[in-house]
Amino acid sequence: MGWVDFLIIGIVVVSAVVSLFRGFVKEAISLATWVIAFWISLSYASALAEVLPAGISDATVRIGIAFAGLFIVTLVLGGVINVLAGQLVKRTGLSGTDRGLGVVFGLVRGVLVVAVLVLLGALTVMPQEAWWGESLLMPHFERLAIWLRDFLPEDLAAHFEFGP
């Protein structure tokens, strides 16, 4: 195992530990928010890109900005809902089961975060680096990243290359 494998494990473990303290309800809302943000961004990035200022002439940059903007706005709105739900959970006094189930959500979130980072890495020369190829975990996350890439618009997905 190389350093990148330990980094991947670290990201997933930190996500699980954070979820242990946050609990199931907050993590469920958090995960739903991320999925909804991704879906909204995929569904409406092209339409929003068309109404962006004409000063941004590159179509790929326009779609990237629109995607990121929609994603961030959706995450902020989901965060507000999450704070309100967290206050409700505190008042009801949910048990340790809430926290235990939260760990599962944290693991899922950690895996998704790594997959998105791997997907973004495909925009660079990193997939051709020796450490990338020597990683034990990277092939698994590449498969997940390629699966995520398939949901992107074709003109955007074409820029994500994982090598030969």
UniProtKB/TrEMBL annotation:
Gene Ontology biological process: toxin biosynthetic process
Subcellular location: Membrane
Keyword Transmembrane: yes
Membrane spanning stretches: 6-24, 31-49, 61-89, 101-126
UniProt topology in membrane: Multi-pass membrane protein
Pfam families recorded: Colicin_V (PF02674)
Superkingdom of source: Bacteria
Chief subcellular location: membrane
GO cellular component: membrane
InterPro entries membership: Colicin-V_CvpA, CvpA-like
UniProt keyword list: Membrane, Transmembrane, Transmembrane helix
Protein name as annotated: Colicin V production CvpA
Phylogenetic lineage: Bacteria, Pseudomonadati, Pseudomonadota, Gammaproteobacteria, Chromatiales
